[in-house]
Specification:
Blueprint (H helix, E strand, L loop, with lengths): L1 H58 L12 E2 L2 H7 E9 L3 E8 L5 E9 L2 H15 L9 E9 L5 E9 L3 E3 H6 L6 H20 L2 E2 L8 E4 L5 E3 L6 E2 L41 H15 L9 H10 L7 H4 L3 H10 L10 H5 L2 H4 L9 H33 L3 H9 L4 H10 L13 E4 L7 E4 L8
Parallel strand pairs: 1-5
Antiparallel strand pairs: 2-3, 3-4, 4-6, 5-6, 7-9, 8-11, 9-10, 12-13
Length: 459
C-alpha cells in the first residue's frame, strides 16, 4: 500500500513538473508574441493617425511647429486623463464654457467646448489659439491647451476643447453697476489697465478690433480687468522688418468687422485702417464708464454709422457736470476722426488724467445706475434683434429665403431657424453673425450692398 502510494506520488510529481515548465515557457512565449504584435499594431495605428492629422492640417491650410504640438493635441483621451469636468459657466452661439479641474494640482480652468462639422471653424480656432498662446499679459486671458478630435466620414464631425484661464469675475459694466463706491479714481485704475493691455497687444502686432465692455472681464472687487474674445482680432508680424515700433500703422487691415457702436469711423470707409481703431474703441468705453451712456446711439444702423463718421457726440447733462475736464480731454483725444491725430497707447498712458491722482468723490449714483441698467438692457435686446436680422440676411444671401419665410410665419425661435439653415448647404450661421453687413445704396433705389466675410487670409 505504501509502495503503491509512493509510486502514485512519484508518478504524480514526475508528470506535473515538466508540464508546468512547458506551460510556463509557452505562456511566456505567447505573452512576448502578443506584446510584440500589440506594439506593432499601435505603431501602425499611430502612423495612420499621424498621417490623418497631417492630411487634415494640409487640407485646412494650417502649419503646426514642434512648439505648437506641446499645447495642441489631437488625442482627446489626454483631456480625460488630465481634467475633471465641472459646472457650466456659460453658453454662446457655437458652444458652451464649463469649469474644469486639472487632476495633477487641482487648479481650475475654463474649458470652451465647440462641436462642429465645419473645418473652417476648427481652422479658425487653431489659428486663434496659436496667436493667443504667444501673448502673456496679466490683463489678457491666457490660453493653456487645445484638444481636437476630428472624425472623417460622410458627415465629418469634430470637437474642439480650449483650456484657458478661469477669470473669477463678470463683464466690467455689471461689476461697475454693483459697486458701492465708484468714482473717477476707480474708473482710472481700470481704464489704465485697458490701455496697458492695448499697448502690449500692439507691441506684439495684435489688433483686437472688437474692444467693448462685453469683452472685458472684471474681478468682483472691481480692481482688475482681463480682455477676452479675440475672434475677429488681427495678428501679423509682416511689418517688423520695415516699421519702427513707435510708428502708426504697424498692422494694416481693410475688413469690416467688430461692433458698430464701438467701431472707429475709418472702418466704414472701405479703405485701409490700422491698429489705432482700438484707441477709438477705448475712448467709447471710457465715455460709457463715466456716464453709463453710449456717445453714438441710434435705432437705425445708417444713422449710427453717420454719427460715428462725423464724430457727432456730446458731453452734457448732470452727470457730465461732475466729470473732470481732464477726463473729458482724454475722451476727446481718443475720439479723433483722423487716426494720426488720435492718441497712441503710449500717449494715452502719459495723459494727465491717467498720471495724476483723481478725485475720489462718487460719480452721481442715481444717474449712473439708471444709465448702466438701460445700457445693459439695451445691449441684450439689440443683440437678440441683430441676431435675427443677420439670420434673415444670410438666408436670402444663400438662396434659402423659403427657410426664413416658413419659420418667420410660425414665429420660430432663432435656434430653430439656425438648425434648418445649417442642414441647408451645411451653413453654420454662427461664423457669420458678427461680420455680415447689408446696407442700402444711398444713390440708387432697390440696390443693396452685401459685405460678406469670405476668407480673410490676406487681411
Amino acid at each position: 500500500m505504501d509502495i503503491q502510494n509512493q509510486k502514485r506520488k512519484s508518478k504524480f510529481s514526475f508528470s506535473r513538473a515538466p508540464t508546468n515548465e512547458n506551460s510556463g515557457a509557452l505562456q511566456q512565449l505567447k505573452n512576448r508574441f502578443k506584446g510584440q504584435m500589440l506594439q506593432l499594431i499601435n505603431k501602425n495605428e499611430n502612423k495612420d493617425q499621424d498621417k490623418q492629422i497631417q492630411e487634415f492640417l494640409i487640407r485646412i491650410n494650417v502649419e503646426l511647429e514642434e512648439e505648437d504640438l506641446k499645447y495642441i493635441k489631437f488625442d482627446m483621451s489626454l483631456y480625460h486623463e488630465n481634467y475633471i469636468d465641472g459646472e457650466i459657466l456659460g453658453e454662446g452661439c457655437i458652444g458652451l464654457v464649463r469649469s474644469v479641474t486639472r487632476k495633477q494640482d487641482g487648479c481650475e480652468f475654463a474649458c470652451k467646448i465647440v462641436k462642429t462639422d465645419a473645418e473652417e471653424i476648427v481652422k479658425n480656432m487653431i489659428l486663434e489659439f496659436k496667436n493667443l498662446k504667444k501673448l502673456s499679459h496679466p490683463h489678457i486671458v491666457a490660453m493653456k491647451e487645445l484638444f481636437i478630435q476630428w472624425n472623417e466620414g460622410f458627415q465629418s464631425t469634430g470637437t474642439v476643447l480650449v483650456i484657458m484661464e478661469k477669470v473669477k469675475g463678470r463683464e466690467m459694466f455689471e461689476v461697475i453697476q454693483k459697486q458701492k463706491n465708484y468714482s473717477e479714481w476707480t474708473a482710472r485704475i481700470l481704464f489704465e489697465q485697458i490701455l496697458v493691455a492695448i499697448k502690449y497687444m500692439h507691441d506684439n502686432y495684435c489688433c483686437h478690433r472688437d474692444l467693448k465692455p462685453n469683452n472685458i472681464l472684471c474681478a468682483e472687487d472691481g480692481t482688475s480687468i482681463k480682455i477676452t474674445d479675440f475672434n475677429v482680432s488681427k495678428f501679423t508680424d509682416g511689418y517688423k522688418e520695415f516699421t519702427n515700433l513707435n510708428d502708426h500703422g504697424k498692422i494694416e487691415m481693410w475688413t469690416y468687422t467688430g461692433t458698430v457702436a464701438f467701431s472707429a469711423p475709418e472702418i466704414f470707409s472701405g479703405g485701409l485702417y490700422n491698429e489705432q481703431v482700438d484707441l477709438w474703441s477705448a475712448g467709447v468705453i471710457l465715455y460709457v464708464m463715466l456716464s453709463g451712456e453710449l456717445p453714438f446711439n441710434s435705432d437705425y444702423l445708417n444713422d449710427l454709422i453717420d454719427q460715428i463718421s462725423k464724430c457727432k457726440y456730446q458731453m452734457v447733462g448732470p452727470i457730465w457736470d461732475q466729470i473732470s475736464p481732464q477726463a473729458k480731454d482724454l475722451i476727446q483725444n481718443l475720439l479723433q476722426l483722423d487716426p494720426l491725430q488720435r492718441l497712441t497707447p503710449e500717449q494715452a498712458l502719459d495723459h494727465p488724467w491717467i498720471k495724476n491722482v483723481q478725485n475720489k468723490s462718487e460719480i452721481p449714483r442715481d444717474t449712473l445706475e439708471k444709465n448702466m441698467a438701460r445700457f445693459l438692457n439695451q445691449k441684450t435686446n439689440n443683440e437678440s434683434e441683430l441676431s435675427a436680422k443677420k439670420i434673415k440676411q444670410i438666408c436670402f444671401l444663400f438662396g434659402a429665403g423659403e427657410i426664413w419665410k416658413r419659420h418667420s410665419l410660425k414665429n420660430s425661435s432663432v435656434s430653430k431657424i439656425s438648425e434648418d439653415l445649417k442642414k441647408f448647404k451645411s451653413i453654420d450661421i454662427s461664423t457669420y453673425k458678427k461680420e455680415i453687413q447689408v446696407t442700402k445704396d444711398q444713390n440708387s433705389n432697390h440696390v443693396y450692398h452685401i459685405d460678406y466675410p469670405f476668407s480673410d487670409d490676406s487681411d
